[in-house]
Write a structure and sequence with these properties.
Helices cover 46% and strands 13% of the residues. The protein has 288 residues and is of the alpha/beta class. It folds into 2 domains: 183 residues, NAD(P)-binding Rossmann-like Domain (Rossmann fold); 86 residues, Orthogonal Bundle (N-(1-d-carboxylethyl)-l-norvaline Dehydrogenase, domain 2). It is globular, with a radius of gyration of 19 Å. Bound molecules: 3-hydroxybutanoyl-coenzyme A (3HC).
């Protein structure tokens, strides 16, 4: 199999990441089925596509024809069997829970044609924790996009010990077709490249707040003004989801049992209160 054999893509999960990954693939000319267990999420994703595309046309970033074609390329289907039955490539962007992902990949192994590649967008669950739920571990890898997926240019392609080089190569090629720059990680490592670097920054920022040195607002202002980052660490955690920061920290802590890997008290407090950032309209900042 090579990249030219990839024509139909199924994106699983219409949340924060999935709805934009699906649209990226549709804009790149692929036949895309976006699926989610929640019809409400699918309606939201479809609504987003129907407002985003005309806005791009109005901004002069897309032609009317490209926008119309992208809309024709994408469908929103709740039923997994129907959405994944005849696809060549799956990008799973469902909830970051390992048991759910293992169950999903076992089902995908049953539903999809034997040649289909099954990639997970997970940012911290390496595919070797999922691949053995399928009978095609050589066709399983991580394909990690960044938020917002329509804008951010990087995709991390992580080749596990079970992943064939052909699978990793096709995933790199697909990233390129979707207008992204792929970074090929030849070995699995926790946090991949970017989240390892980001975690160092975020942990330090959280430590400074926990110590009462400065407020989230001041730290965000300092980082955007001094380092030129488009968002400071607290604004970014609100954007990507404080629940995700919590799950990432807990997963890491369970693996290492090192206290320094435990989510910071501030993250635990926000997680327990349900203040998960933009998606719950409150995190470190309020969003009305
Ligand atoms: N969805 C789609 N497109 C969006 C968008 C969104 N939510 N927000 C902004 N955009 C687009 C706009 O349409 C505009 O496109 P154009 O230049 O082609 O017209 C462009 O982005 C710039 O938008 P704005 O001028 O309105 O706003 P900003 O200049 O403030 O940019 C931002 C918004 C792109 C989100 C910018 O603040 C940014 O880059 N923030 C940092 C994001 C980041 O670090 N992401 C990585 C997070 S880590 C991660 O994802 C890992 C995961 O595992 C958690």
């Amino acid at each position: 199999m090579n990249i030219e054999d990839v024509k139909k893509i199924c994106v699983i999960g219409a949340g924060n990441m999935g709805h934009q990954i699906a649209l990226c693939a549709a804009l790149a000319g692929y036949q895309v089925r976006c699926t989610d267990i929640s019809q409400e999420m699918l309606n939201k994703a479809e609504g987003f596509a129907k407002t985003y595309l005309p806005e791009r046309v109005a901004k002069g970033k897309l032609s009317q024809e490209q926008a119309d074609q992208a809309l024709r390329n994408i469908s929103f289907i709740q039923n997994l069997e129907e959405a994944a039955a005849d696809v060549d490539f799956v990008i799973e962007a469902a909830v970051e829970k390992i048991d759910i992902k293992r169950k999903l990949f076992a089902e995908l192994d049953r539903i999809t044609p034997p040649h289909a590649i099954l990639a997970t967008n997970s940012s911290f669950i390496v595919s070797s924790k999922i691949a053995d739920a399928t009978n095609r571990p050589d066709k399983v890898c991580n394909m990690h996009f960044f938020n917002p997926a329509l804008v951010m240019k990087l995709v991390e392609v992580v080749q596990g010990p079970h992943t064939s080089t052909e699978t990793a190569q096709i995933t790199m090629d697909l990233s390129k077709k979707m207008g992204k720059n792929g970074a090929w990680l030849k070995k699995e490592i926790y946090g991949f490249l970017v989240n390892r670097i980001l975690a160092a920054l975020h942990n330090e920022a959280l430590f400074l707040v926990d110590m009462g040195i400065a407020s989230p607002e001041e730290i965000d202002m300092a980082v955007t003004n001094a380092l030129g980052h488009p968002m400071g660490p607290f604004r970014l955690m609100d954007f990507t989801g404080i629940d995700l920061s919590y799950y990432i920290g807990m997963e890491r802590y369970q693996e290492t049992r090192d206290q320094k890997d435990k989510p910071s008290p501030l993250i635990i407090e926000k997680f327990v209160k349900g203040e998960w950032g933009k998606k719950t309209k409150k995190g470190f900042y309020s969003y009305d």
